[in-house]
Each structure stands twice: as structure tokens, then as C-alpha cells.
Amino acid sequence: MSFIQIVEIIIKLGVGFSILNVWLLNRNKSTPWRGANASSMEEEFATYGLSKNAMIIVGTLKSLFALLLLISIFFPITEYTGALGIAVLMTGAIFMHFKIGDPIKKSFPAALFLVLSVITIFIGQ
Questions:
Q1: Which residues contact 25 (CB under 8 A, 6 or more apart)?
Q2: Which of 48, 55, 58 lies closest to 107, judged by CA?
Q3: H-type helices in the chain, by residue range?
Q4: Is 80 exceeded by the pLDDT of residue 125?
Q5: How far apart are CA 105 and CA 125, in angstroms?
């Protein structure tokens, strides 16, 4: 296994498990990255002007793409879809932070996952 392949696996594990952690385990917890002063995912989406249904759809998609990224460690055919899906949703997250005037640091996790997803797409080519 090459160094690049090891880095790619580390990226997939980091991004995949981080997204699942946020959406499945810490959805109702306050973090320094939530939009405005929201203390839960539902409050954060309301701050963005989005409904609970939008939150459920986004959370389902992010979790699905994170799982595809993790599965791609063993089944590379899922890599592109997982990484591209995460990249698109993280771009949307960054725009939401800017929309409500959040400080740039609140966009850091989304920006990091966007960059790592794009790297994964290019490494996998």
C-alpha cells in the first residue's frame, strides 16, 4: 500500500466518522461551529431559515455520503459519489454561514471537509 493510499484512507475515516458523529451523536449538542448561537442542529437550521424537514433531508444525505466514503475504503466504486456529495453539501454549509453573517471560523469544519473531499476525488482518479 502506498503512502497516498494510506493518506486517502485516513481522510475517508476522518471525514466519514466526523460527519456521522455530528449528525448521529451530537445533533442536539452545542458546539462552537453551529450557526449563530444555535445549541442544536434544529436551532441551527432555523437560524438559516430552513425547516426541520430540510434538516432531515440534509442530515440523511450527509450521513449517506459519509457512509459511501467509508465503504469506498473496501469498495472504491462508491468513492466518487460519496466525496462529491460531501463536497456539494459542505459548499452549501459554507454559504449558509455566510448568509447569516457568522464569523469565518464557524465555516472551518465545512471548509476542511470540502477540501478533503476534493482531494479524495482527485486522488481517486
A1: none
A2: 48
A3: 3-20, 41-47, 52-71, 79-99, 108-123
A4: no
A5: 31
